[in-house]
């Protein structure tokens, strides 16, 4: 399996069934049992609420493709969201806030990549450590309190529309297009496939796998920074526990989307459908008034089932 | 190349002597931290504080000792903290409903053990990588616990039951005696029984272990079940110590437990480490956190420091092993 060609072409046909069936089944289920699920207002609500998750799940796909994992994403998102809130509050500038969030997020991403690539620490432990660090920093910079009174320019991002389409959705679509282009149409994307599939080949080709790996994690951190802006805009405040656990939804979306944890191949469209599956599941359970705790538990079950099926497929 | 050579070399029993040196360094580190704290803070060397450190360390140790066995097999159990929370809440409810602490303790242990067993099944039968399987379990348990408690707090348990976590015997807190007992059992099990040695063998080289006739799946199930049961035990101590249970008590327990295992010299790559090392690890971590507390550093700093310690511990472990090879 290790000998897979460097340019491992994604094979969507094999996977379309899995995640698409999950999504269709969930939609069908909630159309029946959750009144109001199929209304336009609710469906667009699902889409808007899935945007933050999209921004985490897409880079998470790349990271998992390198046989890595980033458990720190939710905590880093929390920290960047606080940075956006604090800096935009102090400077009254949305762009400076975004810049601060991006910077902090990318710094954490580089740190993750450095720990994994250069020090060789297993990704799940390295990012568990940085999870603690980001969580701690969130508590320290906010002193455990919410940051309120942020400028309108930040809040408006979440509610504004562009040509009738909500801005968060536009941002998510642009992100998807960028990731699609990056993964399937650039050399860097090919290298990412090789990072998971055949790292030796990269070295023989005169490339530095370590630097590429750091870049992949840095992209994840930077995306957590952009998602942090959306999170702050959505909550109209910064909160020291806002994004905790979101990395789990992201991992769930990637796993449901058919990206393999062991074979270095991923499928971005699958991740997008996975994000929608998680979004529909949470929204539907919400509509039939099950508390968010049950939603969390069912996402957990979703992940375990998806991984089990992934394992079956890899053995088949 | 290094990968292959690492896989071929089985763990010789002489690791014990190398482990002894490593343990000695760790004891030294613990003493050093004690010395620094004694200089920096007047209250550190008071009897009350030292007993407090030991009691605190015992809580971390209970969770971390079971986890040590999992890590010895090159696995990881990220669900221990959430497991403590669920077990504590269920055990607390049983005590409230039946008025019988014994029944509550049994339920808590059983709940922890069942969760551990489920983890084991996911890892062995479903062949899901352990860190992902137990991470999924973490969120399932979190969800269940929050749903079950629905924002309520269980409070007020029989005085006899509270003795377990907060009582004293001959001047020492009762959890410290439990710590010594489980330290003894754990060390004996890992070092002196065939099952314990098989666990080391599985961690060092699962393929060789299977080929030499070790029932790998059954041992793994055992290891995860033990880890879960120890989380159940920790939940009982927690419950009787705090005299209350809430859904969120487990959230700050997992990272310290993992830190204790790693500081204690158990390698994430399996096959190397001791339960006694984990005890020292729990002690060092508790000393650091206690010291921060005494120097009036805000508790907000604890996750940051614990996170740094986890990374440092893994990095040091990898460095020493690389040099040893």
TrEMBL record, chain A:
Pfam families for the chain: BPD_transp_2 (PF02653)
Transmembrane in keyword set: yes
UniProt key word Membrane: yes
Localisation: Cell membrane
Any one GO molecular function term: transmembrane transporter activity
Membrane-protein topology: Multi-pass membrane protein
Domain of life of the source: Bacteria
Keyword terms of this UniProt record: Cell inner membrane, Cell membrane, Membrane, Transmembrane, Transmembrane helix, Transport
GO cellular component, as recorded: plasma membrane
Transmembrane regions: 16-34, 46-65, 71-90, 95-115, 162-183, 212-231, 294-312
Name of the protein: ABC transporter permease
Automatic annotation (TrEMBL), chain B:
Cellular component terms per the entry's GO annotation: plasma membrane
TM stretches of this protein: 23-45, 57-76, 102-121, 128-148, 168-190, 220-240, 252-269, 301-318
InterPro entries, A to Z: ABC_transp_permease
Main location per the UniProt record: membrane
UniProtKB keywords: Cell inner membrane, Cell membrane, Membrane, Transmembrane, Transmembrane helix, Transport
Signal sequence extent: none
Membrane topology: Multi-pass membrane protein
GO molecular function terms attached to this record: transmembrane transporter activity
Source organism superkingdom: Bacteria
Compartments reported by the entry: Cell membrane
CDD domains attached to this UniProt entry: TM_PBP1_transp_AraH_like
Name of the protein this chain belongs to: ABC transporter permease
Organism: Bradyrhizobium forestalis
Origin organism lineage: Bacteria, Pseudomonadati, Pseudomonadota, Alphaproteobacteria, Hyphomicrobiales
């Amino acid at each position: 399996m290790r000998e897979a060609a460097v340019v491992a072409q994604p094979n969507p046909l094999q996977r379309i069934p899995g995640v698409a069936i999950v999504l269709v089944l969930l939609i069908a289920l909630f159309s029946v049992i959750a009144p109001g699920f199929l209304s336009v207002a609710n469906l667009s609500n699902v889409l808007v609420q899935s945007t933050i998750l999209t921004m985490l799940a897409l880079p998470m796909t790349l990271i998992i493709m390198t046989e890595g994992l980033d458990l720190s994403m939710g905590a880093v998102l929390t920290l960047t969201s606080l940075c956006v809130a604090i800096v935009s509050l102090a400077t009254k500038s949305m762009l400076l806030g975004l810049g601060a969030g991006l910077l902090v997020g990318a710094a954490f991403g580089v740190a993750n990549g450095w720990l994994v690539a250069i020090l060789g620490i297993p990704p799940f432990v390295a990012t568990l450590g940085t999870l603690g660090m980001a969580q701690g920093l969130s508590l320290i910079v906010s002193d455990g309190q919410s940051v309120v009174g942020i400028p309108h320019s930040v809040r408006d991002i979440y509610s504004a529309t562009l040509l009738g389409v909500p801005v968060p959705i536009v941002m998510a679509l642009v992100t998807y297009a960028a990731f699609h282009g990056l993964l399937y149409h650039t050399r860097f994307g090919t290298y990412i496939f090789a990072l998971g599939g055949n790292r030796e080949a990269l070295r023989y080709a005169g490339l530095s796998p370590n630097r590429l790996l750091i870049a992949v994690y840095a992209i994840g951190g930077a995306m957590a920074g952009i998602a942090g802006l959306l999170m702050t805009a959505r909550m109209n405040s910064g909160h020291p526990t806002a994004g905790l656990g979101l990395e789990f939804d992201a991992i769930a979306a990637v796993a449901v989307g058919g990206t393999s944890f062991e074979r270095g191949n991923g499928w971005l469209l699958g991740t997008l459908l996975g994000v929608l599956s998680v979004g529909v599941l949470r929204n539907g359970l919400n509509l039939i008034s099950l508390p968010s705790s049950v939603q969390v538990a069912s996402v957990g079950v979703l992940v375990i089932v998806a991984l089990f099926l992934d394992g079956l497929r890899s053995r088949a | 190349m290094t990968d292959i050579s690492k896989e071929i070399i089985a763990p010789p029993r002489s690791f014990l002597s190398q482990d002894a040196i490593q343990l000695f360094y760790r004891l030294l580190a613990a003493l050093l931290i004690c010395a620094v704290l004694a200089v920096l803070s007047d209250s550190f060397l008071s009897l009350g504080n030292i007993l407090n450190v030991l009691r605190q360390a015992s809580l971390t140790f209970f969770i971390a000792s079971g986890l040590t066995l999992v890590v010895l097999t090159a696995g990881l159990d990220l669900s221990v903290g959430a497991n403590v929370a669920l077990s504590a809440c269920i055990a607390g409810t049983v005590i409230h409903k039946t008025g019988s602490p014994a029944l509550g303790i049994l339920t808590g242990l059983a709940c922890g053990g069942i969760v551990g067993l489920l983890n084991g099944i996911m890892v062995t039968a479903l062949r899901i990588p352990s860190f992902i399987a137990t991470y999924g379990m973490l969120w399932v348990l979190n969800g269940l616990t929050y749903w079950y408690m629905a924002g309520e707090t269980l409070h007020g348990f029989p005085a006899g039951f509270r003795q377990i976590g907060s009582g004293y015997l001959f001047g020492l807190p009762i959890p410290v005696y439990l710590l010594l007992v489980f330290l003894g059992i754990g060390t004996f099990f890992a070092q002196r029984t065939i099952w314990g040695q098989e666990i080391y063998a599985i961690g060092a080289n699962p393929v060789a272990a299977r080929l030499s006739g070790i029932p790998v799946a059954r041992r793994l199930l055992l290891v995860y079940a033990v880890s879960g049961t120890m989380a159940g035990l920790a939940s009982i101590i927690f419950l009787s110590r705090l005299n209350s249970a809430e859904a969120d008590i487990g959230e700050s327990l997992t990272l310290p437990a993992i830190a204790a295992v790693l500081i204690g010299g158990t390698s994430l790559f399996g096959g190397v480490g001791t339960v006694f090392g984990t005890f020292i690890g729990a002690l060092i971590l508790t000393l650091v956190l206690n010291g921060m507390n005494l120097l009036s550093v805000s508790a907000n700093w604890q996750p940051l420091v614990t996170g740094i310690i986890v990374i440092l511990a893994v990095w040091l472990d990898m460095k020493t092993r690389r040099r040893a090879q």
